[in-house]
Design brief:
Blueprint (H helix, E strand, L loop, with lengths): L1 H7 L3 H12 L5 H15 L1 H22 L3 H19 L2 H6 L1 H15 L1 H26 L10 H31 L3 H7 L5 H15 L3 H10 L1 H18 L3 H13 L1 H17 L1 H4 L5 H5 L2
Helix pairs in contact: 2-3, 2-4, 3-4, 3-5, 3-9, 4-5, 5-7, 5-9, 7-9, 9-12, 11-12, 13-14, 13-15, 14-15
């Protein structure tokens, strides 16, 4: 990763090559977004904006041909978050900005990408109906899955794009620290916290959306996305404080991915930390623990 970051910052053409080559790809779009974030954070909004503009050209071509605007929204989102971080020097504000970004992204997808979403929903629901028939014939009973609507798929894709944009921003910030301030990102990330008022609003909004029914439930994930990011920061801070290594962190990440109750516990710990400030009660992490991250 360090080699790639050094290549990006070697010059304008190197950054352009990395940003453009991955921008139209679903597999490598996050690398382009991280490159844009790195250039924006290091050289300013103007340089990052020009890079984002050039990188969006292949993404726009792909969107025109396929109808999928996901890559365009990802690049714009990563650039916007990097500008916020660059201008405010506040990682918490940049992370909180992911919530309105996801909402606007979902609105843009439903409004401008309606035909693509309708085809996607029709294909998915058709496959779901076929699966219902196959299972029912084998078990000789009735089974019904919940079908998805266009707004639901738009919300799902927008939330996914926003998650990747936030991860790309964090990767760009990590690259910046790796090249110009070694160890700085680890300390910054472990100290990441959100204001109490913001946490209360996010939890309330997420709960309200959840209880509005299936049509709105997917949006609850976008509403609490910053809390999830802070949850990872809290886990890394605890790992550094106790001297737990990469194996323990890998286990925590795995549990979060595969077990839904862990996700709820994660959010509960973040809310509790806002009021009790667990990290203020912990000692400064040792140099050996911090360097492992």
């Amino acid at each position: 990763m360090r080699g790639l970051a050094e290549f990006i910052m070697r010059g304008w053409w190197q950054a352009l090559v990395v940003a453009v080559l991955g921008s139209g790809s679903l597999l490598f779009g996050w690398i382009s977004a991280a490159a844009i974030a790195l250039v924006t954070l290091r050289q300013g909004s103007a340089s990052g904006g020009w890079l984002a503009l050039w990188a969006m050209l292949p993404a726009v071509i792909v969107a025109t041909m396929s109808g999928d605007m996901g890559s365009v929204i990802l690049l714009l989102g990563a650039f916007a978050l990097a500008v916020i971080l660059r201008e405010t020097v506040s990682l918490s504000l940049a992370v909180m900005a992911s919530v309105p970004m996801a909402m606007l992204g979902g609105l843009a997808l439903v409004t401008l990408n309606g035909a693509f979403l309708e085809e996607l929903v029709a294909t998915f629901n058709q496959a779901l109906a076929q699966l219902e028939q196959d299972i029912a014939s084998e078990q000789q009973g009735e089974l019904a899955f919940t079908t998805l609507s266009v707004p639901q798929v738009g919300a799902l894709l927008a939330t996914g794009n926003t998650v990747v944009a936030v991860l790309s921003l964090l990767l760009g910030r990590y690259w910046q620290a790796l090249l110009y301030n070694p160890g700085g990102f680890g300390a910054e990330f472990r100290a990441l916290r959100l204001p109490q008022a913001a946490v209360v609003i996010m939890v309330g909004t997420g709960a309200l959306l959840w209880w509005q029914g299936a049509e709105w439930r997917i949006w609850s994930a976008a509403a609490v996305l910053p809390l999830t990011v802070v949850g990872f920061a809290l886990v890394h801070a605890y790992s550094a404080h106790t001297g737990k290594g990469v194996t323990w962190l890998t286990l925590m990440y795995t549990l979060w991915i595969v077990l839904d109750p862990v996700k709820w516990l994660w959010l509960g710990c973040v809310v509790a930390d806002v009021f009790f400030d667990f990290r203020a009660r912990w000692n400064t992490p040792s140099g050996g623990s911090a360097s492992s991250e």
